[in-house]
Amino acid sequence: MVPAELNSPGYEIPPEARNQVVITTLDRIYNWGRSASVWPMMFGLACCAIEMICTAASRFDLARFGMEIMRPSPRQSDLMIVSGTVTKKMIPIIVRLYNQMPEPKYVLAMGACASGGGPFKEGYNVVSGVDKFIPVDVYVPGCPPTPQALLYGLMKIQEKIRGESIKSARWYQKGPDAAETPIPLLGPDLIDPRKIEFIKSVQAKRNQEA
Ligand code: SF4
Predict the structure, then answer these.
(1) Is 48 in the pocket of ligand 1 (CB under 6 A)?
(2) Ligand 1: distance of its center to the CA of 120 in Å?
(3) Closest residue (by CA) to atom 5 of ligand 1?
(4) What are the tens digits of pLDDT across the range 119-166?
(5) How many angstroms separate the alpha carbon of residue 194 from the centre of ligand 1?
(6) What gap in Å lies between CA 141 and CA 160, rounded to an integer?
């Protein structure tokens, strides 16, 4: 059975051939294939991960979306579900995993902690949102979000994929690849390497004033 959404409007297909013949665009069939076979990376950070695990189990059944194959390697994953509290100790590893995922790749921030720090926002050891370091495509609110909420977020990822075009996709453009996100440095506190020049300038100013 040919999925109805693949048939482009404007082309008349005889009723007797509608289950065998489809007339569509390259973008539609390419995005349909990609959106129906998203492979999330298998990792979880805190309590939200339990809800993510429930979502993959039989009651909610991620297999309906072609997403049941959670990969244990970033090299084989195209969706990172950040499910739980992002600590300063963990963010360097998360960024490294993100950099190791091949394009096209997507990030879903699951829950209040991953989206903005949640109940630990001002905590000494917590990053107030994973989007401070990696780009997030979809945010799912809640503490924790229910499996239904996560499924809705996953459908939003599918919607985003279906709206993309081969012509403008960033991973098919000529030129150098997008720069990797620099891995944060964990010392006495977390340092974002993109802000080192700024930190140095503030320090120099303070030294002059002293
Ligand atoms: S958002 Fe709530 S449930 Fe999810 S990791 Fe944070 S504290 Fe736990």
Answers:
(1) yes
(2) 9
(3) 84
(4) 998 889 999 999 999 999 999 999 999 999 999 999 999 999 999 988
(5) 28
(6) 18
Paired tokens of 206: 């303070």
Q: pLDDT (tens digit, 9 = 90+) per residue, 64-88? A: 888 888 899 999 999 999 999 999 9
Q: Amino acid identity of 179?
A: A
Ligand 1 pocket residue status of 50, Cβ below 6 Å: no
Q: Using CA atoms, how far apart are residues 114 and 109, in angstroms rounded to an integer?
A: 5
Q: List C-alpha distances in Å: 161 to 7, 78, 165, 166.
A: 18, 11, 9, 11
Report the helix count and the strand count for the chain, using DSSP H and E: 6, 5
Separation CA 109–CA 116 (nearest Å) = 9
> Nearest CA to 8 among 169, 26, 17, 161?
26
